Amino acid sequence: MAGLSALEFRGQPGLALGGPDLEAAAQALSAALHPASALNAEPHGALPFSSVRGTFNAQEGQRAVWIVDVSTRDLPPATRPQSLDIALTTPPEAGALASVFLNDVLLGSAAPPPDGRLRANFAIPERLIALDNRIAVTLQRPAPVGPAQLLPTSVLRLAPAGAPSEFLALPPFFLDGLEVLVEAPGGVTAESLNLPFWVLRPLLPLRSPLTVSAVDPGTIPRPRGPFISVTGEPPAGSAPRLHAVNGRIELTDRTARLPAPPPITGPALIAQLLESDGRPGIWLRPITDHSPRFAPSGSAPRLDRGDAALLDERGAVLAWTTSPAVPPSPDPPPPTAAADAPSLVQSWRPPIAWGLWLAGLVLVAYAFVRPRHNRQPA
Predict the structure, then answer these.
(1) What is the pLDDT of residues 283-303, one digit of tens each?
(2) What is the pLDDT of residue 182?
């Protein structure tokens, strides 16, 4: 049985791992130090602020600000942010107002109740979510009357995530494991892994287990889970919307969008978000089969919004969403016989007009012919 015990060594506190199974003891310690690991057991899904990076110190000024940073890499598998439950305490006072911002966009405001204990929920529009998110909670008071504090019991409410449609939605799917598929005829080397790890650096959660698989040139890779594939052929069961042909990017799907790419002066890659038999991942493909070896030399690319990107060796990214912003409207239905037939008003319009004209003519003639009895003699 694994055990943990507290001790003091040279005046400093510490923990000692004991028992016959030290690996189990280490896992128990890791679970205790990572609250997000136990989050998966919560039925409704909530990420406590205490398990992410943030400031929760009490503040006494007229204006107090607390900052909390949350990445999609912090989320449990297959989840997405849905709303914020903010818990804040302040001395009882009139005129105070708390405001909540996500990535510099106001989500809403609320006034603390008379007892100074505010608990409010703010919905998160999906369009505001980024790969790395900054939550700012501000409290504006007429005058400082005592310490106010954002409580670490505030939580980020989560909802089940559907199939990822943008790069930023991939990290929660990578949490339980990621397969790296590399086209390496002579076997996988450290050099052949530089490219996928360079692309994955902003997207991969630290705790994700990795599996590396070699793929023979010209064969179709077959991922067994979430993946990144650096291969000439797309993964099995996928439907890429773009292809590289003779150094040009071409559309495979006629409904996809393709922005005008910048001039390409060196080696470049297309990165696409794909599903291989329901398993999400990224397919990396050089734009030409005969270009020099792609050698990343800059910072890791920032794959965030979009489901396709053009990358160069310096990490520059042209990312976009291949699906059209407005889906094409269906062709209008052909007119039916009922639609072509005149309505009741339309069919009676000519007789009514003629009748009104004749009635007017008769009234005019009658006015001229009728003797004027009420005229007085001169």
Answers:
(1) 998 887 654 577 788 789 989
(2) 93
Q: What would the pLDDT profile of 64-94 be if each residue is shown by its tens digit?
A: 999 999 999 999 988 999 999 999 999 988 8
Q: Tell me, what CATH number does 90's domain have?
A: 2.60.120.260
Q: Is the residue at 273 inside a domain?
A: yes
In a domain, 38, yes or no: no
- Per the structure, the count of domains in the chain is 2
CA 277/CA 266 separation, integer angstroms: 33
Candidates 140, 129, 142; CA nearest to 65 is: 140
What are 135-158's pLDDT values in tens digits?
A: 999 999 998 889 999 999 999 999
Q: Which two tokens stand for residue 17?
A: 């791992």
CA angle 326, 327, 328 (to 5 degrees): 115
Type of residue at 47: L
Tokens at residue 214, please?
A: 């070699």
DSSP 238-294: ---SEEEETTEEEESSTTS----PPP--S-EEEEEEEEETTEEEEEEEES-TTSPPP
Q: Give the C-alpha separation, 303 to 317, whole Å.
A: 8
Contact 306, 167 (CB under 8 A): yes
Task: Locate 5 and state its tokens.
Answer: 């015990």
Answer whether 0.90 is exceeded by the pTM: no
- The residues, ordered by sequence, that sit 6+ positions from 177 with a Cβ below 8 Å of its Cβ are 208, 209, 210, 211, 225, 226
- b/e map of 86-121 (b: 16 or more CB within 10 Å)? bbbbbeebeebebbbbbeeeebeebebeeebebebe
**Measured distance CA(173)–CA(227) in Å, rounded:** 10
Strands 79-89 and 149-150: antiparallel
Last residue of a domain, one of 130, 161, 192: 161
CA distance 52 to 41: 18
Say which residue the tokens 């909540």 belong to: 100
How many other C-beta atoms can be found within 10 angstroms of the C-beta atom of residue 369?
A: 7
| Nearest of 73, 256, 104 to residue 169 by alpha carbon | 73
At 25 the pLDDT is 47
Q: Collapsing DSSP states into helix, strand and coil, what is residue 24?
A: helix
